[in-house]
Design goal:
The complex is a heterodimer of chains A (446) and B (249). Chain A is of the alpha/beta class. In chain A, 25% of the residues lie in helices and 37% in strands. Chain A has helices at residues 14-26, 33-49, 65-69, 84-93, 128-134, 136-144, 153-161, 392-399, 405-421, 427-442; strands at residues 99-105, 108-109, 123-127, 166-170, 179-186, 193-202, 207-216, 221-230, 235-243, 249-258, 263-272, 275-284, 290-299, 304-313, 319-329, 333-342, 350-360, 365-374, 380-388. In chain A, the strands form two sheets. Chain A has a ten-stranded mixed sheet with strand order 2-1-5-7-9-11-13-15-17-19, covered by helices on one side. A nine-stranded mixed sheet of chain A has the order 3-4-6-8-10-12-14-16-18. In chain A, helix 2 runs antiparallel to helix 7 and helix 9 runs antiparallel to helix 10 (427-442). With 249 residues, chain B is an alpha/beta fold.
């Protein structure tokens, strides 16, 4: 029995409850009561839920046993060491050109590496910790709002334990010309788990692009939750570049609500990490919203990755476009699960989902599972899914021009993935992703 | 340059397509291999280029003094063997220019020559495009994607001109072309004629040979060369049809 909850917690949750108790004692007393209450409530939910069962559809492709057997407790990240290697990694992976940059080392805001001073009027960008102090109403209203993540154990754990994150609030009508770059880097000095919680609110008719890059070294578990709220007519691009360390575990959740005629473009490029789960949950609440969810995963070795998307059309006239491409080599395992729901009354919804996958070699595998649930009668919904090998005719054509087999295969894999990356409309983001993809391909073992 | 002795080849399902081909091609020569559908023309081209799906059960092919059949397809190409495809393959997402530069640099590396940078490559490309009267937009498109039949064949000839092969095999490059495209293909082939280069034109019809004069003409039938002669043989074939040659043989 734990001091935090008055009911028997699931065994795998207990170490985290104890860690929470220890932290609560040492936590900065300035944390407001509402937040302490929110954390407690979230922890109780996690204690009740425990880890997801592998029998649950949403977790069937991720092996949680190692995490169950060896808890990865929240890292003590009060003192972050900025090594040359950390700085080098940041320089290597950051966007070229002018951006608003916010750096989180081991899950905590690092002001000396960030550049958020010259924000235009109407834009608030800062750490979650700062937002709790300076924008408590904004943060509180979002955190305490009925959540899309009620039954998600790791989001509940995240809510209980998050150390920091970022908040971007864009006033109505504001267009952010520069890209907002969020760099999440694990220094390798702190093992354990890193819980980050972030929030983007896009005001009416505003427009912004955000790239979040996840990288690091060592063995760690990153548990990241970001919530996006788009008001009417808002446009938001959110790119996730996942290049975690070879031994890292990454669970990322993006929860978005779309107002009328808003437009969300989401892209994930998943290249690194031992086990990566990327989940995007979108609820179209206003009429004529547009949601683009696209992405690529490229896996080798023993990597496992799972991309899940859920788009819930609760309002009429919405549009969804999804294109996901997966590549798995060696013993890697990838999975795509995409669900689109059209609720009763959400007429004239137009939704299309495409999942195309390349399996390179007999020991690699990719699962793809589209699901359409349609409860309205006047809709256009379709999906396509394919898993295959490289096109032999194309491969021979390249080789017949003297291109060595390995290089020819790499060209075809790149072309395959490129088609999805090219859906990213912002040129600096697209070029950045293409260059990261090329670097990953150059070291792809088959 | 190329010596084919008693070449037998079958498909993986066991059907024998080539049943003992003998052919000798010297540098500087242009040979035409003619024959009806199903005679084994394209199989011969595929076996020489190293395409999977064929099994050589007997015979030998020597190319520039080496055992051609022991070389991988891409190595054959780097050694100067070029196949113009009957059905050029569409490759979405691979830019034509990038593709060609990769191919040329693979060859240059193989020969121990420095690779071409983008600027050097572009200068050579522009010169060739002009010679062959091809629009530059072709380069910016994905390889063969959305190309018309004629554009695909032009692209093959353009690649041949860029790669400057020692031995070029054109597999029915003339089929399905209108007269302008045919003349362009012929111009490309004639430009490539050189004392150190051999060209093999595989064709069903004689009409390309109105514009490209072959040194030797061979008739392929049932997987064997049943008759060889000078350019007069092609004209005779056109007049009398393959049946007559077969009967005479």
């Amino acid at each position: 029995m734990s001091a935090v909850v008055n009911f028997p917690a699931k065994p795998e949750a207990r170490p985290y409850l104890e860690a929470f108790g220890r932290r609560a004692l040492s936590r900065d007393e300035s944390e407001p009561d509402w937040l302490a209450g929110y954390r407690k409530g979230s922890l109780a939910r996690f204690a009740e839920l425990g880890f997801p069962s592998r029998r649950s559809e949403a977790w069937r492709y991720i092996d949680l046993r190692p995490l169950e057997q060896r808890p990865m407790l929240p890292a003590d990240t009060e003192q972050t060491v900025l090594s040359a290697a950390t700085r080098g990694r940041l320089n290597e992976i950051e966007l070229a050109g002018p951006v608003y940059r916010l750096v989180l080392i081991d899950g905590r805001f690092t002001p000396e590496l960030s550049a958020i001073e010259e924000l235009p009027p109407g834009v608030w960008l800062g750490s979650m910790a700062a937002a709790i102090d300076h924008r408590p109403d904004l943060v509180r209203s979002r955190l305490e709002a009925p959540s899309l993540d009620a039954a998600r154990p790791f989001a509940a754990l995240n809510a209980a334990l998050f150390a920091d994150g970022f908040v971007l609030d864009i006033a109505p009508g504001v267009t952010l010309e520069r890209v907002v770059e969020i760099l999440h880097l694990s220094s390798g000095h702190n093992g354990g788990s890193l819980h980050t919680r972030s929030l983007i609110t896009s005001g009416e008719g505003s427009s912004a692009s955000v790239i979040e890059t996840f990288t690091g070294s060592g063995e760690y578990w990153r548990n990241d939750v970001v919530e996006l709220q788009l008001a009417a007519g808002a446009e938001l691009t959110r790119v996730a570049l996942i290049e975690e360390a070879a031994d890292a575990l990454h669970f990322g959740e993006m929860l978005a609500t779309l107002g009328a005629a808003s437009r969300l473009s989401s892209f994930v490029l998943l290249l690194g990490g031992r086990t990566v789960r990327h989940e995007a949950t979108v609820r179209s609440e206003g009429e004529r919203s547009r949601c683009e969810l696209n992405g690529v995963f490229l896996l080798s070795g023993r990597q496992e990755a799972n991309i899940l998307t859920t788009v819930d059309h609760a309002a009429p006239g919405g549009e969804t476009r999804e294109t996901f491409k997966g590549v798995a080599a060696e013993r890697a395992h990838g999975a795509f699960q995409g669900r689109i729901t059209v609720r009763p009354g959400a007429q004239k919804v137009d939704a299309h989902q495409l999942s195309r996958n390349l399996v390179l070699g007999p020991r690699a595998a990719i699962d793809t599972k589209p699901e359409l649930e349609i409860y309205a009668d006047d809709v256009k919904c379709s999906h396509g899914a394919a898993v295959g090998d490289l096109d032999e005719a194309a491969l021979f054509y390249l080789r017949a021009r003297g291109i060595p087999n390995k290089e020819a295969r790499r060209m075809l894999i790149e072309a395959f993935a490129r088609e999805a990356v090219e859906l990213v409309e912002q040129e600096p983001l697209r070029e950045h992703l293409l260059s990261r993809l090329a670097l990953r391909l150059a070291i792809l073992e088959e | 340059m190329l010596e084919i002795n008693n070449l037998h080849a079958r498909l993986t399902d066991g059907r024998e397509i080539l049943r003992g081909i003998d052919l000798s091609i010297k540098a500087g020569e242009v040979h035409a291999i003619m024959g009806p559908n199903g005679s084994g023309k394209s199989t011969l081209a595929a076996v020489l280029a190293g395409r999977d799906g064929y099994e050589v059960s007997e015979g030998r092919v020597t190319y520039l003094g080496r055992d051609l059949l022991s070389m991988a397809a891409d190595e054959r190409a780097r050694e100067g063997l070029f196949l113009a495809f009957q059905y050029p393959v569409e490759i979405p997402g691979v830019n034509n220019m990038y593709f060609l530069r990769t191919a040329i640099n693979a060859q240059r590396r193989h020969r121990g020559e420095p690779e071409l940078d983008a600027g050097q490559f572009l200068r050579i490309v522009r010169a060739q495009l002009k010679l062959l009267d091809i629009g530059e937009d072709l380069l910016q498109r994905a390889v063969n994607v959305g190309f018309s039949g004629g554009e695909k064949k032009r692209n093959e000839v353009f690649q041949m001109a860029m790669l400057e092969p020692r031995l070029a095999i054109l597999d029915e490059t003339d089929s399905g072309l209108d007269i302008d495209a045919l003349k362009m293909v012929a111009r490309g082939v004639n430009q490539q004629r050189a004392p150190d280069r051999a060209i093999v034109i595989i064709t069903h019809y004689q009409r390309l040979l109105d514009y490209v004069e072959p040194d030797r003409v061979h008739v392929l039938q049932g997987g064997r060369i049943i008759e060889s002669g000078d350019k007069g043989l092609a004209i005779e074939l056109e007049r009398r049809g393959y049946g007559a040659i077969e009967d005479a043989a």
